[in-house]
Protein 1
Amino acid sequence: MRRRLILVLWSVHLFAACSDLDSDEPARQARSRLPVALVEYQELARSTIDGVRARDLVAFMDHYVRLPGNRGFDASIEKVIEELEAAGYRDEEEDAVGAPTGKQESR
């Protein structure tokens, strides 16, 4: 679940970042044909995602070789978890009424 949540968050971030490239007319026309829900998510992502924080997270992760189970992988996962918790996410096993939740899976 958490892996999917992380993937979704990164996908939204990437979509929001790429949407800044729509300064030309063909890109604006293509954006106007997007489903309304997708445009709303894009606007939400643009208003809540901080590019500096995202860049800092990637810079942190770039210091490590991330193979599942090694120190770099674990440190990167912990950093992402810290960021999600700072944004209000809670572990789904906690009693987090009204808060968005996720689950950290292990093997």
Note: Helices lie at 2-18, 25-32, 36-48, 51-61, 71-86.
Protein 2
Amino acid sequence: AHVDSRLVFYPRRWGISEGLRVNLGDGITVTVISCCLARMMSGETTSISAADIPEAVPLRRAIFLYLVPGLIITASFAILSPVLNRHWGVDPFLCFTAALVPWAVYTIRHILRHGVVGNRFALERLTRYAAPLPGWKTIPLVLGCVVGMLALFTASNAVLAPFHRLFKDRLPVWHFDALSYSRAIAEGSLLQGYSTVQLVAVFFALNGIIGIIAPLIEELYFTGYLFSRTERTFGRLHLLAHSFFFALYHWFTIWLLPARLLSIWPMFLVAKKYRSLYLTMLIHCSVNLLGSLGLTIEIARVLAGRLR
């Protein structure tokens, strides 16, 4: 079915005017993610054809679309964190979470621009990777991919530890490194002086935003929007190029580029084989949540001790 491009517009009730202004207070993120989750569970499809999705994005534009979101996060973090951390004592991780707001505005704008048909969001308009979950294969695929990715990431970090220190030893005090951050919390050094309110905020930011919301937006943008449109752009190098640029997009922890590149390709391999964005959503959220499980447990333990 052909979809007239004139039908793709931003409803005024969503607070978007000409694709430039986004009112996050109206629940855009919740609307899009809820729609995708409902469709994932129901297996519902639409009459929109994959032929309506552009087959290729020019190389220069593709690189721009891959890297700009990471530059937005890095610039926002570099501007916000020194002020919030030094003057108000806000935890660096919460400063980083605040820096995700302009990133979310940028990525959601692209998701809605290419995924809204009429007045509703249609995943088939956004991506060619809209196949439903592969039935009974879902659980072993997700578990195998998650275990493999975490194992590769952990092993890579161990091997590349000297390389990481070249960067981490030069980080400003307002920056944070997830591994050092976790170690400091486990030793109790980072929790001293933290209010209960700030600990609760870190706990929910770690699990709600970094664990669920951020990876879902990333999957909609990178796997949904970009992966579909760069198959012909990169040709036979599509999987490798997408993995590389997704790893490079994390400018704010650039020292983890080799570890990320070695560990994330299984997720995109699964996406390419099964043409299912829903699979990568489950895998990505699981990796983020499990990767920070130790930190989550430690914060929960400290909070429980304070509430006794």
Note: The first strand starts at residue 116 and ends at 117.
